[in-house]
Write a structure and sequence with these properties.
Helices cover 35% and strands 24% of the residues. The protein is α+β, with helices and mostly antiparallel strands. The chain has 2 domains: 182 residues, 3-Layer(aba) Sandwich (Chemotaxis protein chec); 68 residues, Surface presentation of antigens (SPOA). The relative contact order is 0.11.
Length: 334
């Protein structure tokens, strides 16, 4: 059956037609009128939302309120801005100078992130922490951070790192740790200039002013969470993966492997081989143990003998614990 028998060319063209700009932001149609609804309307809504990332942001806001109370000497409101994706090169070019860039080491993903603070945020943090109202302005001629600003920023970063770990824990058990602090983005790069990074912006409302910092994470860490609905989906995925691993392990254990044993060996120089004649004898000694091979991989060691009229090898120990598996001590042989 061809697609023309199911849907006409006109209907197909109508479904592929782009949504008119005015329709995207339009509200409900007036009473008595029919509102146009594009076929991919709900798909686009679901694609724009990222429930897992939204949940992480909500947890982060809750944790930041407690952290802000400690450093700002009172309750503060926290605002989470929408996550945005940019090229690292474009992001680095728009950073103010000086800027406090604090590198994050993310394990076990072996990736790097960044906590970015503009100079006004650092000045406000220091001012309030030491009893000010945070309404002052940083002098424009200050091109470097003072030692006390650097120490206080480090303390603040350590608190944010702990919050990040707690916010991500229901989805990914990651270990965030503080790395170096820089003011030049060249020395705090989390990727190449063309690589995508995800920028999450969080703002502290002090009075009528919002003071924000940004969490920069590589897209390779964030993008897999976009299609995830909630933690139960992650748990179900992990459970399915574990089930397949167990089934694969059982199937592999049923595979048939051809074994061979090298009873003995010796070294002879090439001259003796060239001069050898029928009847010459090459002397060898039977070793105390015999190694069983699967292809070129040693598996077991044992002693040579006979069993029920056939040559046999009695197994004494594994020759390669890593290949044989956990049952024979793989966990101990690292």
């Amino acid at each position: 059956m061809e697609h023309k028998d199911i849907i006409s060319e006109e209907e197909s063209a109508a479904l592929r037609e782009a949504v008119p700009p005015a329709a995207e932001g339009a509200g409900l149609a007036p009473a008595g009128q029919v509102q146009d609804l594009h076929a991919d309307h709900w798909e686009r809504i679901l694609a724009d939302r990222a429930p897992a990332l939204e949940s992480i942001a909500e947890r982060m806001v809750s944790l930041l309120k407690a952290t802000g109370r400690r450093f700002f000497r009172g309750p503060v409101d926290v605002v989470a801005h929408p996550l945005r994706s940019v090229r690292w090169g474009a992001y680095a070019r728009q950073l103010p100078a000086p800027c406090s860039l604090n590198v994050l080491d993310i394990r076990p993903a072996a990736l790097k992130g960044l906590l970015s603070f503009d100079p006004d945020f650092i000045f406000m943090l220091t001012d309030i922490f030491f009893g000010g109202d945070g309404k002052g302005r940083r002098p424009e001629d200050m091109t470097e951070f003072t030692p006390i600003e650097q120490r206080l920023t480090r303390k603040f970063v350590e608190a944010l790192v702990a919050d990040l770990k707690q916010a991500w824990k229901p989805f990914l058990d990651l270990e965030f740790s503080c790395g170096k602090s820089e003011t030049n983005p060249i020395f705090a790069a989390v990727g190449t200039s063309s690589e995508l990074v995800s920028v999450a912006r969080f703002g502290f409302l002090v009075g009528e002013t919002e003071h924000a910092f940004e969490v920069v994470l590589p897209a390779a860490l964030v993008e897999p969470l976009r299609g995830m609905r909630d933690t139960s989906q992650l748990e179900a995925t992990e459970g399915t993966a574990q089930k397949w691993r167990s089934r694969l392990r059982e199937d592999v254990q049923e595979a048939r492997v051809a074994l061979r044993a090298v009873l003995t060996g010796t070294e002879v120089n090439l001259r003796d081989i060239a001069l050898a004649r029928p009847g010459d004898v090459i002397y060898t000694e039977l070793p105390a143990s015999v190694v069983l091979y699967a292809g070129d991989q040693p598996l077991m060691e044992g002693t040579f003998g006979a069993c029920q009229g056939r040559n046999a090898v009695r197994i004494s120990k594994p020759a390669n614990r890593r290949i044989v598996g956990e049952q024979y001590g793989r966990a101990k042989d690292k």
